[in-house]
Amino acid sequence: MVGWEEGPAVDRQLRRWRRETPGCANRAHLNNAGAALMPLAVLEAVQRHLRREAGIGGYEAADEAGAEIEAAYSAVATLLTTAPANIALTENATAAFAQAMSAFALQRGDMIVTTRNDYISSQILFLSMATRYGIEVLRAADLPDGGVDPDSVRQLIRHPRCRLVAVTWVPTNSGLVQPVEVIGKICREAGIPYVVDACQVVGQIPIDVGRVHCDFLAATARKFLRGPRGIGFLYVSDAALERGDYPLFVDMRGARWTDADRFHPVSDAKRFENWEFAYALVLGLGEAALYAAGVGIDVAGARARDLAAVTRERLGALPGIRILDRGSEVCAIVSAEVAGWEGADIVSRLRERGINVSAIQREFAVIDMDEKGTRSGIRISPHYYNTHAEIDRLADALAELGTR
Ligand SMILES: Cc1ncc(COP(=O)(O)O)c(C=O)c1O
Description:
single chain, alpha/beta, 42% helix, binds pyridoxal-5'-phosphate
């Protein structure tokens, strides 16, 4: 049996985490890769600001909260081991990623190197760029046990038309952890810009952007970081800023309009932002980053991964359940196929029993799912505030549903 023993010391912490998380009273929430339960502090930060907006006006409330807004940038920067000037806030991770991608003036015949497990919306974005601009999308080969082969990336980026490498650190549909630091070093040595999607990473794996060697890193608030929905962020490296990178559709937040025919991008990462903001969510994000730092990402991640290991062990022992996670390193996302069931139907049945998981389907990750020979399954993503008892509840419910 793997997993943390929930002895007195862990119990005390666990009780506190759960007390500070109102949703724990209602659900066995095992969908943290979808959207985690917000801690009370995050909820209150959002509500407080909305009440201020209603009370004194939206622009006035933002001015009043100026110092707290700056503190939110600092908290996010600390989370990524960088400076506030390198952080841009966005509506979500997809928007952050698209802003970064639009900074590259790609020409017909240019190449993007990516992986077979990059996020669905990134893959669609690459294909759209291929259709519109005639660029080529190259996917590096995987290792036999799953996960991208860094040597394949090294080979592909030797092509003189390779303009950038994009890698999703942890995909949406499985527990795979890609070797982003190794790839980052390869890109840095070759002088190729590197864009990382860390959406499923932030809050469960400590991030040091210097070690990742990335130019851009996109993430969102609502997943393992436990922030509110509807806000994300983009790390922009000093190298990218000094190169003069800015998004194609830069706006009045990101640039100054100096003359009728001229504009200048602002000096920091805010050049990747849009003017309008849900400031309540900015404050919620800041609070989530502080809360995560208080728990400790290493503590949170270790416990979440242990609970995921327990989940794989429990579910893998049930007849008709096939665990789908591959790769030399796996994280707090468990993917499984249940014989005879569509993932969405299981999700509904579990929800009736007060258990939250999510469905995975072929179109979320066509390459990976086809390789695994499956069309549909479930994704279970525990976090540190979950318990062994909740995993037991899930396993019992699945055993009761059986196979079809
Ligand atoms: C790996 C990965 N990248 C990006 C995203 C997109 O995040 P958002 O919905 O905040 O744009 C997701 C969302 O599930 C994801 O799992």
